[in-house]
Amino acid sequence: MPTQAGTLLTSQSLFRCPPPSSHPTRRASAAKEARPQELIDAALELFAEKGFAATRSEEVAARAGVAKGTLYLYYPSKEELLKAVISQRLSSEIVAVTEYANAFQGSCEALLRDVFTEWWSRVFDSPTSAVFKLVITEVRNFPEIAAFYRAEVVEPATALVGEIVERGVRSGEFAPVDVRGAVMSLVFPMIMLCLHKHSLGACAPATDMMEPHAFIRQHVELVLHGLRAHPTSTAGADA
Questions:
Q1: What is the distance between the alpha carbons of residues 212 and 217, in angstroms, rounded to a whole number?
Q2: Torsion angle, alpha carbons of 192, 193, 194, 199, to 10
Q3: Which of 43, 78, 95, 173 is the most buried (most CB within 10 A)?
Q4: Is 20 within a domain?
Q5: Is residue 47 part of a domain?
Q6: Which residues pair with 174 in a beta bridge?
């Protein structure tokens, strides 16, 4: 799953306080089928800028260049719109990565490296990274969204990574480990990286944090080092 050349951002562009947003109103697409995508894109931008609770539906419609009534034709509520953002930006990606993992013929170590360095780099570079901040900071007040996110993102992603780790343990490639603990060790720092990008990292000097893609690679290698089944030395056992 290689990323496209030229899509990786540098720390200088990521960790510089951005100017106030001045997005022009999008021209409404003549193609009716394009409107849901325009609304999802506009919603994610505004949710990331203002927060989910503070964003009004009419603002999303205006950003997308459509009437408020048009928004409600596709998404009857703001909650349904956020669900659509989660489904398109994360759920569909997890399905694609799961299909890739199921067809993968190499080692479990190579598969984990692919999934985390390539997929997480792509997520981090895209507006999708803002979804984690939205969910973590606001979902407590919206239990329906919390349940949806858990079913659509947390459970399938945990199952995917857990299956790769379990496969490695069964094959002897990885040492016996607490699989759930290994999954959390892999995933949580990645989520924290996305949170940092959309909070302190948005205004912090570039020197405050290492280049994000280097961080992702180093983190994955660190966890893989701990997972590998190191041969047990018998030296001195008969002494």
A1: 9
A2: 80
A3: 43
A4: no
A5: no
A6: 228
Distance from C-alpha of 165 to C-alpha of 174, rounded to nearest angstrom: 7
- 3-state SS assignment for residue 52: coil
**Letter for the amino acid at 134?**
L
Residues 164/112, Cβ–Cβ less than 8 Å:
yes
Supply angle C-alpha 12, 214, 198, rounded to 5.
Answer: 55
Q: What would the pLDDT profile of 51-94 be if each residue is shown by its tens digit?
A: 999 999 999 999 999 999 999 999 999 999 999 999 999 998 89
Q: Is 131 within the bounds of a domain?
A: yes
Containing structural domain, residue 101: 88-233
* CATH number (domain holding residue 145): 1.10.357.10
The count of domains in the chain is 1
The one-letter amino acid at 210: M
The pLDDT tens digits for 181-211 are: 999 999 999 999 999 888 888 887 766 777 8
Q: What is the pTM of this model?
A: 0.79
Residue type, 198: H
